[in-house]
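Below is a filled-in request sheet from our internal design queue. Each sheet records the structural input a requester submitted and the sequence that came back. We keep these sheets so that new team members can see what a complete request looks like end to end.

REQUESTER: design group, bay 2
PRIORITY: normal
MODE: inverse folding
CHAIN LENGTH: 441
BACKBONE (tokenized):
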């Protein structure tokens, strides 16, 4: 049995049935004088370029902004620019003017006083080599804002120390982040008015294995880390301590991943909140060690929505944190202003007088026990590993996931300023799963 497409005329050769049909239709158009035409203006225009497509911390696709109007994106050159006292380029500020998109700037270890810079490139890596260079403000500032101002595309900053940033408006920063996607790794920020201060907008900030200490102007308006209303903040394996009247970490970002950090105000510290999300947003705080000393500026460890909710989604997830409140009269582990969609707290270990939900928050609170110092190895020195004989073992409850993001811890903080992967599913509440025989903390 054959179909009509298989009957070939004289001189025809076998072709795909659809191909043969198309040839016959075109021949018919030619015989009848009917032709199809296509005008250039019938075609869709070129799509608008919005920037590079990347995945954010939750795995969703986002765009990293393209250069602003009036800025020209240069072709990546891939050069390595070396900065140091014995190099052709001796000043960081000179390298900032010479660097092009795609370059790497290597800064030799040493002190760089009053050598401030503005960075506008894309796909740029700036790293310290041979040790950690110290960028000392020494009274200078870039654009009256801080030691560095960053408003490029994707910029990576590694192994650098920023200290002493002060400006007349008392808002000087080690880094003022104004545009793009900034990744900070293995850096130290101390004795600045702000460690890092960001603007607002379609921006992404990632901080890994870094230290923030003794930052703040002392007025309560400047902080160790102060993040504006940006798209996404991710902080992992970092150490925050001794803020001067301000907060250890304050973020107005729409989405926040605060994972496996140590936020401890410690002896002599004067921090206010240890962790604040003043405008809500989605916040995942997982596997953190959070401690407030006996004489803080504020009685609250974690504050959520205190200045009003300004994001479409306002969800707080507190999972497997160890929280230590040393106030003799007892402070509040968590205060959340009404108006949020979700507050979910699982497996948080509380050292202090009040329960986690002492404010009567309408949320999901599961397995958040209050304990004394007994279960821990040496909590007075922030060693919050659980002793082997503790009845806390095997009390962990699975928190599930949220927005496609697993809430189960997969790493833990290691002091100072790093993390390590967990080798098994957690079995304990709190931030530490490694047991006493391991001498590290």
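RETURNED SEQUENCE:
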């Amino acid at each position: 049995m054959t179909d009509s497409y298989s009957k070939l005329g004289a001189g025809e050769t076998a072709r795909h049935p659809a191909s043969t049909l198309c040839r016959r239709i075109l021949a018919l158009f030619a015989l009848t004088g009917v032709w199809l035409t296509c005008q250039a203006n019938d075609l869709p225009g070129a799509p608008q370029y919005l920037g590079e497509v990347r995945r954010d911390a939750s795995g969703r696709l986002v765009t990293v902004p393209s250069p602003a109007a009036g800025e020209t994106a240069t072709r990546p050159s891939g050069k390595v620019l070396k900065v140091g006292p014995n190099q052709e380029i001796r000043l960081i500020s000179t390298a900032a003017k010479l660097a092009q998109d795609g370059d790497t700037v290597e800064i030799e270890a040493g002190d760089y006083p009053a050598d401030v810079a503005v960075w506008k490139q894309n796909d740029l890596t700036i790293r310290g080599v041979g040790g950690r260079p110290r960028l000392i403000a020494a009274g200078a500032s870039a654009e009256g804002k801080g030691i560095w101002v960053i408003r490029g595309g994707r910029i990576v900053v590694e192994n650098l120390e920023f200290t002493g940033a002060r400006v007349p408006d008392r808002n000087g920063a080690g880094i003022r982040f104004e545009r793009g996607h900034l990744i900070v790794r293995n850096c130290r920020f101390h004795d600045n008015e702000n460690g890092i201060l960001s603007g607002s907008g379609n921006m992404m900030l990632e901080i890994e294995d870094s230290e923030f200490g003794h930052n703040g102007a002392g007025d309560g308006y400047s902080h160790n880390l102060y993040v504006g209303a940006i798209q996404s903040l991710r902080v992992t394996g970092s150490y925050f301590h001794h803020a001067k009247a301000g907060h250890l970490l304050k973020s107005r970002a729409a989405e926040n991943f605060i994972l496996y950090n140590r936020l401890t105000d410690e002896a002599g510290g004067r921090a206010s909140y240890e962790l604040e999300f003043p405008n809500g947003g989605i916040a995942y705080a997982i596997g953190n060690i959070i401690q407030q000393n006996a004489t803080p500026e504020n009685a609250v460890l974690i504050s959520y929505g205190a200045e009003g909710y300004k994001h479409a989604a306002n969800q707080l997830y507190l999972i497997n944190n160890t929280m230590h409140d040393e106030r003799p009269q007892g402070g509040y582990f968590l205060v959340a202003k009404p108006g949020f969609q979700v507050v979910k707290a699982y497996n948080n270990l509380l050292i202090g007088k009040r329960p986690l939900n002492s404010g009567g928050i309408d949320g999901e609170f599961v397995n958040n026990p209050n304990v004394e110092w007994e279960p821990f190895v040496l909590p007075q020195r922030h060693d919050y590993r659980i002793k082997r004989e503790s009845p806390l073992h095997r009390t962990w409850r699975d928190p599930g996931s949220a927005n496609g993001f697993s809430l189960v811890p997969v790493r833990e903080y290691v002091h100072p300023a790093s993390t390590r992967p967990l080798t098994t599913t957690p079995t304990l509440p709190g931030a530490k799963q490694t047991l006493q025989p391991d001498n590290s903390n």
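SHEET NOTES:
- The chain is about 5% helix and 40% strand.
- Confidence is low (pLDDT under 50) at residues 1-22, 25-50, 66-75.
FILED BY: M.R.
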